[in-house]
Task: structure prediction
Amino acid sequence: MQFIVHPLSKIMDGITSMTVSSKGIVIEGKLGKKLYTWQSQLQPPLILEGKITPKIQIFMPDTRIKIRIKDSDLDHAQFELQKFWLTSHMVKLRQSIAKIEALLERRYLSHGLLKTAKEMAQELAEHWLTWSMDQRLEAYFVQTRYTLEEVHTWQPQDVDDFREAFIAKQLADYGGFFDRIAGQPLTIAQRRACVVIDERQLLLAGAGTGKTSVMIAKAGYLISAGVSDASQILMLAYGKEAANEMQSRLSDAQLSVTCRTFHSLGIRILTEVEGKAPQLSQLSNDAHQKHQFLLETLQSLCQDRDFSNNLLALLKDSFNVDVREVEVDFTAPYLSKLVKQFSDLISLYKQSRSVGSGHIQQIESEFELYLLVFRPVLTEYQLYLNNEHAIDYDDMISNATKYVKSGQYKSEWLHVLVDEFQDISPARAELVKALLAQRNRSHLFAVGDDWQSIYRFSGADLSLTTHFSQHFGPSTVMQLDKTFRYPQELLDLASDFVCQNPQQIVKQVRAQVLSDGPSVVIEHDQQNDLVYAKLSELAKTTSHCSVMILARYHKQLTDNQTIEKLNKQFKTIDIKSMTFHAAKGKEADYTIIIGLDKSVPTKQTTDKVIDAFLPALEAFPYAEERRLFYVALTRAKKCAFIMSPKEPSRFITEIAEQL
Result:
């Protein structure tokens, strides 16, 4: 096919001829021939009707070329140009559309997958949707172009509809699987949490909503649906007890997935990189030995007069030690308190350094004198570990993170499932992020409950949950909507109580358990041993039950010897005694909550320097204390008995107003 070039083109551009073939368009001029292949052209050449003479416009990636031609059968010429271009590009288009369709059919439309599909559609749209196709050619491409137009013009509602269609199909296909994988049928909300697979996913699971069942089912679904191999799934729990329970349930479900604590994960990473298992320092597991070491270190450092003077200055400034003292009294109570501060600060200081806390310089300026004394102690502590050829738990996490970031450790995990996510610290979050960053298509499934975040004192950062997407990227946030532990009355009361803090995420949860009586009772303390009286009453009215006696502080609890006597006396009752913190994750038929006098809640008593290294304190008064009491309330499966003293806590007053 050859076009007759208009004389004006010869004058302006020196073009003498233009030929069209299956390879492309050849333009010949004074400087020779040049081939513009169909593959290199962004879209079919377009014939334009100019004021003087028609033109052919060729669309190249970096330029647009226009050539004047003499009048001819322009419709036929346009048809032929489109046919040549389409013949060259149709295979690639169909392959690209097939790839998009395959991605969308086999997997949940995650944020990452949606971005990939939209980018592919955008690139194709620049070639295919910016010009009008000849009707005689549309039949060959109608379905392909329709798919492209659909993906390219997707609106948020279209995306939601597509996702819902996928979820519905998976719930139907795996209905039997979800009926049996966790020991009992999962709820719809639990099943949806399993089949939704976003790159970053947060599941808010309130007390008693079956989060462990979801984690087991999630791992099982990933394997059964062919999304992942068992070896590519990492499950993380916080304590050894929780990890063991999770591992036991994985075994019951016949899933060969490993559940680790963060510490056992650290040991694995360090062992693989260093060729031997790390040695944990004895100071890490013996608080008394660590205290004694720090005290002796201070005594040794005080042989240096400058250090001794700095220590005295710190004691006078922070502990109101008599300014006339010229020697440090190592037997004084204030010295023991300082050592306790140092013991706590070692971990927090090392964590802040490992994650590069943005406000570390401000802290060091504000507490210059304190840190002037602390740093030499920390140096001696670290030298002691080095001499032991040992590390502590903070070193374990920070070293593991360093090895992952540097690529010395290669992660095999595509899916990381983290339990109790509300308790995660920035240092542990950094390790998780490093593992995820190693794989192009990595997935984080975080399960937690912002209502049960009670470990700020150890570095837990609630904002990692409440502002999940800001920290981990575009994500899906879901909620479990049914609790299996306690009745609706207790659920409503506890939920209203904790959500007095407007920063807590509001959840819509219903109770599965039916109540045959009141689920929260306030007993006014009018006799010496109300706990004993309540146990006697339960022994008479129940055939067998479990009871947890809960208190805010250890000093308020019944001693172990007395608990043993009570268990022997009340043989039909399994009695345990623990603090609110220790009760988290546990449950009993009945709870007896004691020690809630007017001193509870109390204002934060954390030392200023310790507080400076912790995540920012919430503005709402007693925010963490409120969550802690919520944890205590939600341990009871049947009824929580609150023992109210003559001068009760404000929390009891609030609860009484709701009853």
Remarks:
- The radius of gyration is 35 Å.
- The first strand starts at residue 2 and ends at 3.
